[in-house]
Amino acid sequence: MGKAKSVSRLAKRTRAVVVAPEIVRQRRAADASDIANRSAEAKLAEAVGLARAIDLEIVGQMSVRISTPRPATLMGTGKVEEIRAAVEAAEATLVIVDHALTPIQQRNLEKALNAKVLDRTGLILEIFGARARTREGALQVELAHLNYQKSRLVRSWTHLERQRGGFGFLGGPGETQIEADRRLLQDRIAKIEGDLDQVRRTRDLHRQNRKKVPHPVVALVGYTNAGKSTLFNQLTAADVLAQDLLFATLDPTLRRIKLPHGTEVILSDTVGFISDLPTHLVAAFRATLEEVIEADVILHVRDVSHPDTEAQSADVAEVLRLLEVETGETGRMIEVWNKIDLLDPDHRAKLLDGEGSGRAIPVSALTGEGVDTLLDIVENRLVGDRPVYDVTLDPADGAGLAWLHRNAEVLSRGEAKEEGIPLTVRVSPRHQEQFLARFKLAG
Fold first, then answer.
1. Alpha-carbon 215 to chain mean position
2. DSSP per residue over 342-401, as a string?
3. Nearest CA to 138 among 197, 201, 205, 196?
4. How far apart, in whole angstroms, are the C-alpha atoms of residue 331 and residue 318?
5. b/e sequence 383-401, b meaning 16+ C-beta within 10 Å
6. Binding site members for Mg(2+)
7. What is the phi/psi pair of residue 75, to 5°?
8. Exposed, middle or buried by CB within 10 Å (0-12, 13-18, 19+), for 408?
9. Domain range holding 145?
């Protein structure tokens, strides 16, 4: 019975053709950072990975070179006919175009191809809609989607009544033609923005409470599918979704962990970054990424086994720039070269030889190799040369104990003795003078 259900579900999967346009003129104009300069094969592979992230059945895929984008259809007539033939031959009902499309281009392509057309932005939103689990994540997805829909009001609004899942582009009932009611649209956007403001205030309260107990924040960032969630699980023994899927993680996950020498930190896993991320989508997810903005240390997790690892690194740097995250501060950013278990022996040996250079830390989040070294370096970056003191505290000095927990790091607490309670504490420079004036050092 279970097998029959599985086969039935598989039969209902949307059949899709993936098209990855390569704008030749844009490639020539790429600046020195060369963010856009990926191989056509890599761009197509990423587009197919995005489509598979929402369980589409990929029945065709092709790269299309475009010398001059056409205002009506992006691609020339010949390329459109070529795609139409592929759609008909594969009996596909959906075409994924891995490029931003104007509403006119999208409508014209749907007429010419006789199939639904979804551009890169729409596909990313569809994935985010399927991945969001928390109320905050769902609100952020809906806000980004509504901003996207401002120029596409002929689309369905049936997603507004859903509790989870995608946004009605794929499967389900067909598109519902609605009257363009911009006031209603703007009212809905304003309502969601108000709800998100409330979520942000709650998160700010939580953040302020965490600051009262001085636990630094360590945030994981990186290109989607770089292995952040696998590393998060390795560090925390948590059960966060970690699959070989693009955008497997959407909602932020926080865990408290203890570093090798006792320092406690808050570790944050975040949504993966990706190239050509729409500006309004970055803005909509700013609340999710506030843990990165406020982080004491940022771990930039890179998949060094990927052929486009340098371009992916540049994309992450660009998103951080859009978020106005300062990464140039000494010691704040640490590069983590992940997936060394997938490298050939020569490449792997070169990375490991440079392990002590301080440029980056090679690890395998899957096997745990290099993780202990990474944790040691994170702790050294956080505590630096902070002095450690042994103090003796009067058992009746509850206010003093509270001060230590609030402004210092209590590494150990011994059994109460006649002379008092022995404590070992690490004190930051800004609290050191007040600490020495107030507490009795163990002699």
1. 22
2. GS-HHHHHHHHHTGGGSSEEE--TTT-TTHHHHHHHHHHHHHTT--EEEEEE-TT-HHHH
3. 196
4. 19
5. beebeebebbbeeebeebb
6. 229, 249
7. -105, 160
8. buried
9. 133-164+171-196
Can you tell me the distance from the alpha carbon of 145 to that of 128, in angstroms, rounded to the nearest whole number? Answer: 10
pLDDT tens string 88-106: 999 999 999 999 999 899 9
Return the number of other C-beta atoms located less than 10 Å from residue 17's C-beta.
25
Interatomic CA distance for residues 301 and 336, integer angstroms: 5
156 contacts: CB under 8 Å, gap ≥ 6: 168, 173, 175, 176, 178
* pLDDT at residue 285 in the model: 65
Residues 353 and 240 in one domain: yes
Which H/E stretch holds residue 44? Answer: helix 40-52
In the chain, how many H helices and how many E strands? 16, 14
Residues 279 and 356 in one domain: yes
| Under 8 Å between Cβ of 292 and 220 | no
Q: Are 224 and 306 in contact (CB under 8 A)?
A: no
- Looking at the fold, whether 357 and 288 belong to one and the same domain comes out as yes
Are 379 and 401 in a shared domain? no
Tens of pLDDT, residue by residue over 1-37, are 444 443 333 335 789 999 999 887 544 444 434 444 6
27 C-beta neighbours (distance < 10 Å), count: 14
The CA-CA-CA angle for residues 280, 281, 286, to 5°, reads 100
Instruction: Assess whether 186 and 107 both reside in one domain.
Output: no
Look at the chain and report how many structural domains it folds into: 4
Q: Give the residue numbers of the binding site.
A: 222-229, 247-251, 269-272, 338-341, 364-366
Q: Which two tokens stand for residue 284?
A: 């909509």
- DSSP annotation string for 142-211: HHHHHHHHTT-TTS--GGGG-SSS--SSSSSS-PPP----HHHHHHHHHHHHHHHHHHHHHHHHHHHHHH
* Integer Cα distance of 388 and 427 in angstroms: 7
Indicate whether 3 belongs to any domain: no
> Could you report the per-residue pLDDT of 181-233, keeping only the tens digit for each?
677 888 888 998 898 888 878 877 776 766 655 678 899 999 988 988 889 88
CB atoms under 10 Å from CB of 188, counted, come to 17
Global pTM value = 0.69
User: Which residues are part of a known binding site for GTP?
Assistant: 222-229, 247-251, 269-272, 338-341, 364-366
Residues 417 and 339 in one domain: no
Looking at per-residue pLDDT, the higher value among 397 and 175 belongs to 397
Q: Determine which helix (DSSP H) or strand (DSSP E) holds 110, and give its type and residue range.
A: helix 103-113
Separation of alpha carbons 118 and 155, rounded Å: 12
